[in-house]
Amino acid sequence: MLHKLRTTSLVVIGSLLLTIGLSSEIAAQKGPTQGEATYYYGGTWILHQDGLSPITMEIQRIGSEITGKASYDAGRQGISRGTVQGRAWSETYEPIFMAGVVTINHFEVEIRWHDAVGVYHAKDLTLANTPFSSLKGEAWSKAAPNVIVGWHTDAVFRKLPPVAQPAAQPAAQPAAPAPKPIKSSGKAKAEPLKPPFITAGQVIAQPTMPFASVFMGWDGGPDHPNVEVWMSINNGAEIPAFSIDLVSQHPIFKQPKVPAIEMKLSKGRSYRFTLRDGGFTLSRVEFYVP
User: Fold this and answer.
1) What are phi and psi of 217, to 5 degrees?
2) Does pLDDT of 30 surpass 60?
3) How many CA atoms lie within 13 A of 143 on its CB side?
4) Model pTM score
5) Contacts from 126-132 at CB under 8 Å and sequence distance 24+?
6) Taking a C-beta distance cutoff of 8 angstroms, is the pair 129, 14 a contact?
7) Which of 29, 76, 181, 271 is deepest in the core (most CB within 10 A)?
8) What pLDDT was estimated at residue 87?
9) E strand or H helix at 153, and its extent?
């Protein structure tokens, strides 16, 4: 179960799938300029291999780095599991035969199984106004690179929003006057939040780490037992919520009530978390991770 991708691109435009040959003429143009991959690629999805068992990928992408785990049904041997390590990046060219630029996204990972290492490589062409893309490429065993197997995904991946500059912070407000002392032996009690709600605590960041921690909690209440948590990064499209250590579609984000969970989030981005039940928004919280 070892493979890699090198291929043409599968791009979704509306309901139409276009297979686009990546001509060697592109490489003769100005560039390439390397940058961040256009699409996220994170989450849980199925990697279909030609003539081999499909692989379930559970990965996340932080910057260009891709990490996670993979598994497949090995028959009588049970479920085989492996670790995923790789990267995603883009190359931008200025073709001489057309106006504008051409961006090619690269996806390359290795899966380390108990008995072998598989290499998977793909690249896709990003077209303007194309919010989704799929992957199609080639894979091979690291021990036998001449034996190449095709692979593809049915999943489609959203574009990442551009990294926005942090918004100007509002001027500090004067401190509220101290509350009057309570004329009893009891202590003042904060009013509990009434569900449905989602909350976020203070951002906790270490200078040497690329991420910060934010403790979050939510409660859908008795009327909303099937809530889900979604997130938006830098005001981009909403996607299933994830943390650096928790992939999207993790069961925790579908629990109706979570008193507190540590979310590890990349620095330099604004986040919006939304509590939903079906297509209805119940509550949301927004904050910036400096």
Assistant:
1) -150, 160
2) no
3) 8
4) 0.48
5) 126/11, 126/38, 126/39, 126/90, 126/159, 127/11, 127/13, 128/100, 130/11, 130/12, 130/13, 130/159, 131/158, 131/159, 131/237, 132/12, 132/156, 132/157, 132/158, 132/159
6) no
7) 271
8) 93
9) strand 144-153
